Prior knowledge:
Layout: E1 3-4, E2 27-31, H1 41-44, H2 50-63, E3 69-71, E4 77-79, H3 81-90, E5 94-99, H4 106-117, H5 125-138, H6 159-166, H7 170-179, H8 184-190
Parallel strand pairs: 3-5
Antiparallel strand pairs: 1-2, 2-5, 3-4
Amino acid sequence: xxxxxxxxxxxxxxAWPEREGKQLSRIIHLSIDVLKVHPRNIEFxxxxxxxxxxxxxxxxxxxxxxxxxxxxxxxxxxSGHQRYKACKDLGIELVPSIxxxxxxxxxxxxxxxxxxxxxxxxxxxxxxxxxFAEYEKLCGVQHGGDRKSNQKNCGLITQEEIAExxxxxxxxxxxxxxLQTLSPELQQMIE
Length: 191
């Protein structure tokens, strides 16, 4: 695959400072053809559709992509699936992207995907609960904390710390977890 380097775009200076001690890559334009949808994205997040999607596409057509996609070195999209979909539909061939060189491990890719997209306004509560349950699992917290495993992603972490990482209250997390205990029939009614 190949991509066209454009360096930092005007107005983006300082827009992507170090994040948790990791310097993010420059903003570059990647061919839409080299990008891959994360295989588990749809499992956790709903696509925008209908009038909302049409308005979203009009915005991109008029103003372009305002927030670059985040991709792993293997060109798997971590954040920006809806922007990618709209660009494909609009025939846009190059999209501004940031390659996160630190995302080579599949668990790290999934954890970052979940954290980056948690709380999306259009996502249904059952899927939000599923996102949280998977994120908690990736962090080594299961049933009050898995103190025996050797999870490298987060080490020992509390539900309060996860709530802080995801930007929600612990009460929201408790409510989302309760949804996961409902029967599939009840979950479908909520969706």
